[in-house]
Design a protein that fits this description.
The structure is a homodimer of 220-residue chains.
Chain A lengths: L14 H14 L6 H18 L6 H20 L8 E6 L5 H13 L4 E6 L8 H8 L15 H6 L2 E5 L12 E4 L10 H22 L8
Parallel strand pairs in A: 1-2, 1-3, 3-4
Helix pairs in contact in A: 1-2, 1-3, 2-3, 4-7, 5-7
């Protein structure tokens, strides 16, 4: 006997909400991507996030955000959307700590003059709570952020790819600037240690901003 | 100072080999998928496998295999390729043990009368060696198999989805038969335990084959 009557799966049928997301994004990328391509991105993004997400209540919202970001990246790399600022991608293993802090700090420092993304080679189910706390202490709210798997589209759209402990798992394309930052992994560390990792990342981010925006080094 | 001169990334630029794979698959799916769609599948499949693969030497081969399987699934669910046999998908967490054994056993028992796939919600870097050994003992060679992430296309193409310890992470579509099999995880178990898990899966597979092919239960 098979036991398909007993199954209790946690996810509901999300087809309807995913079709609505697909319609909205199809309208936004009309003339750039076929509706079928957009739908593929939405459904694959949903499945990729659902594999590792802990809180499935947020999945529709994160799916729309993630699919939109990937489509935007793809449109940028095709030249269908002009990118007028440098595009930077941070990649760590879990996209739960280091790469999330780096992305938030670069966003804060660059003030729209750099486009920032982050991803993980083996995304965790949620951000590290100590990381969220340490970032809140300096006024940056990561509570709505979520770990995302590394995808080809975001690598392709980037001018600069900065890996943190997962260099091997990031595709290499010619013509991009690659860096590998050696940083302590904040996973399971005390809040105090996380704060010092945050500050080390912040120092590197300030140097990166200067380097990308071709400004003089700030005087200390 | 940034340290982009010191970077030693494990992956080489694989763009050329991925373009060759894209050309071959574009020819195979000509009239079904645009070349651009095929190329997206190839590059995203590569990145998804590269995230978790341990041995990167096999990546081009596994990428071609995985992308082909996904495109075939997508073509089947679109009705562009007729599926004349039931399509079964096994999903476990790592796609390194249970779902791989189930797929190999179903392939062996069904003899082409059922189309079989497997995937993992958090794919491991390689198959469990004890699993490969236990399967070799009954004449089934898993040495060329590899853990693959669960994707929407293979769920969509399936008539039957059987989860093993990862029910929550599998998208639910109406009209499919879902089962959840409770099985011991073979990870880090002795060869003897793995053999007993293998045999338990084998028993379930025989019942599944009978049920899918509408035959009488075999007399013991």
């Amino acid at each position: 006997m098979t036991d398909h009557h007993d199954i209790k799966l946690g996810l509901q049928d999300s087809t309807e909400v995913l079709h609505r997301i697909s319609s909205r994004l199809s309208a936004r990328y009309s003339g750039i991507f076929a509706a079928e391509t957009v739908e593929r991105y939405v459904f694959e993004s949903y499945t990729a996030l659902a594999r590792t997400a802990k809180v499935t209540a947020y999945l529709p919202a994160t799916t729309e955000h993630f699919a939109n970001d990937r489509l935007h990246a793809l449109a940028t790399s095709k030249g269908a959307i002009a990118s007028e600022v440098p595009e930077v991608l941070f990649v760590c293993v879990q996209n739960a700590g280091r790469s999330q802090m780096a992305a938030a700090l670069l966003n804060a420092e660059a003030q729209g003059r750099i486009h920032v993304r982050s991803a993980g080679s083996m995304p965790a189910s949620a951000l590290d709570p100590a990381v969220v706390t340490a970032m809140a202490e300096i006024g940056l709210d990561l509570s709505a952020d979520y770990p995302k798997p590394l995808t080809d589209d975001v690598v392709r759209a980037s001018d600069v790819v900065i890996t943190m402990g997962c260099g091997d798992s990031c595709p290499i394309y010619p013509g991009k600037r690659y860096e590998d930052w050696e940083l302590t992994d904040p996973a399971d560390q005390s809040l105090e240690t996380v704060r010092s990792i945050r500050d080390e990342i912040h120092d590197r981010i300030r140097i990166l901003v200067t380097s990308l925006l071709n400004k003089e080094e700030p005087t200390p």
